[in-house]
Design the sequence.
């Protein structure tokens, strides 16, 4: 192969037909599996089921709010719905969904045959599943599910104001599923630090793996705080404890504990999806990732700052130092802006193509950008005082979280589905899914900012016709139904393609993959690799498939300026020097 940048076809891999198994054998296999790939898929499918349940709750609420007056829900039912909707979406969809991608991809990314503790990994999944079912079982009790908000502010969530089994099941379910999340984080940290393949230096890991590492660190920082607070609340409800007694400052104590968990949780459910976008954009830009190290250090900055801004949720309490938490909340926008700069820099002058993963990534960029801008507004106490507890915050929250989690989730599913199943998804259906979701989402939640500015309070089940909120609520409800229906093409696409989709006949069906999962078969074998390529950079799969372009692309990373007839000396990165020193085939 010459060094003139000639691109070759990625290595072909014969598609393995599915084995004919006795009925029920696959189900029994999943019950006892410790394969990280199968556990990752279990996380993804289960969390998507909870996502569908949370979406159904949202449609019920939006239907109730379409017109003034009470339509078909009672105040109590509405309270249960917004409590369970928030809890399910944050803690039973967003967080475990991120660990679904992490389970499937991290061992592949670092060249490992499995996670560090396979049985603990399976145990973590079953804790998540049973914890989620315990939480949802509140709907089956005579008094109904928890109704005190997903944030469970005390004293409202204590037994005197919220009696019944539903609240206890909510607390217990979160304790069980939260333990699963903590154990999963321990597993991810150990796997990344201890099981990297030869040549996989830390500075050669994919950005997604870096982000999972810092996500797991945040989990170990935040989730034990939530666990302790939930045990205290359970003691208040059943043992007559006074941990969160308002007469001794317990109401403010709960808010500090919950939001010290809650704001790192926002980045626990953001960093993995930032990593997904960082993997997809270079592939469909036909360029190396711009600013690899800057992205890593931006993640470090977000991780540190996310533990210092919790009290911006408490501006209206009058119990926190406004300038301190406001300034830190402004600061955390800086590393996020760096990530945007690097994603745009990766696309700049690239050979862009707009397959479905790239479309979803662009939808993520647009939506999350709007959410980030409204977040900067809410970091200013003067603005926050005006719109706190209004629909402006609901709009901001969904732009940040839906824009991050859901758009990036679907980007990741469309990107890695061939690797997960050995089949390609249908592109026209994928694009129909994208546009209906994009239009439905912005129709639903953009108007929430205007409703909030006009003064409509959140968490209310009713409003007066004279308030002037009806038209915007009708628009939002129409958008919500479009958003709900947009899931149907996706479900049909996945169901049909899993059985009858076009086989992914090569290791890298997208043609320009960078990380190691694109250097093994689709789907990968039980222990991931039959043989590993030499790892000399953060793009081992690309270097394996296009060896003639490696030196050319490295040279393009340096700019040579002429001073008279003397060229300016080129400086090589330390990782390149180390790579050359460790390469026995490199000429000396």
Sequence:
């Amino acid at each position: 192969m010459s060094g003139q940048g000639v691109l070759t076809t990625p290595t072909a891999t014969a598609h393995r037909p599915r084995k004919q198994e006795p009925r029920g054998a696959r189900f029994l296999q999943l019950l006892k599996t410790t394969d990280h790939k199968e556990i990752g898929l279990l996380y993804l499918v289960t969390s998507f089921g909870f996502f569908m349940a949370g979406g159904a709750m949202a449609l019920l609420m939006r239907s109730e709010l379409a017109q003034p007056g009470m339509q078909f829900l009672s105040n109590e039912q509405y309270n249960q719905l917004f409590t369970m909707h928030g809890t399910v979406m944050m803690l039973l969809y967003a967080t475990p969904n991120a660990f679904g991608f992490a389970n499937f991809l991290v061992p592949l990314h670092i060249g490992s045959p499995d996670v560090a503790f396979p049985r603990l990994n399976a145990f973590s999944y079953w804790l998540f599943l049973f914890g989620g079912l315990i939480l949802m079982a509140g709907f089956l009790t005579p008094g109904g599910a928890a109704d005190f908000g997903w944030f469970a502010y005390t004293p409202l969530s204590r037994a005197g104001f919220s009696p019944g089994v539903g609240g206890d099941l909510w607390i217990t379910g979160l304790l069980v599923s939260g333990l699963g999340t903590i154990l999963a984080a321990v597993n991810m940290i150990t796997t990344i630090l201890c099981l990297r393949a030869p040549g996989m230096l830390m500075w050669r890991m994919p950005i997604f793996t870096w982000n999972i590492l810092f996500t797991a660190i945040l989990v170990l920082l935040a989730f034990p705080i939530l666990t302790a607070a939930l045990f205290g609340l359970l003691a208040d409800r059943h043992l007559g404890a006074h941990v969160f007694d308002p007469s001794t400052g317990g109401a403010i104590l709960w808010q500090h504990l919950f939001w010290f968990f809650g704001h790192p949780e926002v980045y626990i459910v953001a960093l993995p999806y930032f990593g997904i976008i960082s993997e997809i954009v270079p592939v469909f830009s036909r360029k190396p990732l711009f600013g690899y190290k800057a992205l890593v250090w931006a993640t470090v900055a977000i991780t540190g700052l996310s533990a210092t801004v919790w009290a911006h949720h408490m501006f209206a309490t009058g119990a926190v130092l406004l300038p301190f938490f406001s300034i830190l909340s402004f600061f955390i926008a800086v590393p996020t802006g760096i990530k945007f700069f690097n994603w745009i820099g990766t696309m700049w002058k690239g050979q862009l193509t707009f397959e479905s993963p790239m479309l979803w990534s662009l939808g993520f960029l647009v939506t999350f950008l709007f959410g980030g801008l409204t977040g900067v507004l809410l970091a200013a106490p003067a603005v926050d005082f005006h719109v706190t507890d209004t629909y402006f915050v609901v709009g901001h929250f969904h732009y940040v979280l839906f824009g991050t989690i859901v758009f990036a989730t679907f980007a990741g599913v469309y990107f890695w589905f061939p690797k997960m199943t050995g089949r390609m998804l249908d592109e026209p259906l994928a694009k129909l899914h994208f546009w209906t979701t994009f239009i439905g989402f912005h129709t639903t939640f953009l108007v929430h900012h205007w409703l909030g500015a006009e003064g409509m309070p959140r968490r209310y089940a009713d409003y007066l016709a004279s308030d002037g909120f009806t038209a915007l609520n009708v628009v939002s409800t129409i958008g919500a139904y479009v958003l709900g229906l947009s899931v149907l093409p996706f479900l049909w696409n996945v169901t049909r393609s899993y059985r009858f989709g076009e086989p992914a006949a090569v290791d890298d069906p997208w043609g320009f993959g960078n990380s190691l999962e694109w250097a093994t078969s689709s789907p990968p074998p039980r222990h991931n690799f039959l043989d590993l390529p030499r790892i000399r950079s953060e793009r081992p799969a690309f270097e394996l498939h296009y060896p003639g372009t490696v030196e050319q692309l490295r040279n393009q990373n340096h700019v040579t300026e002429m001073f008279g007839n003397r060229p300016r000396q080129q400086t090589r990165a330390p990782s390149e020097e180390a790579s050359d020193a460790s390469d026995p085939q490199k000429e000396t």
In short: The CA atoms of residues 137 and 169 lie 7 Å apart. The two ends are 21 Å apart (CA to CA). The chain has a mean pLDDT of 89.
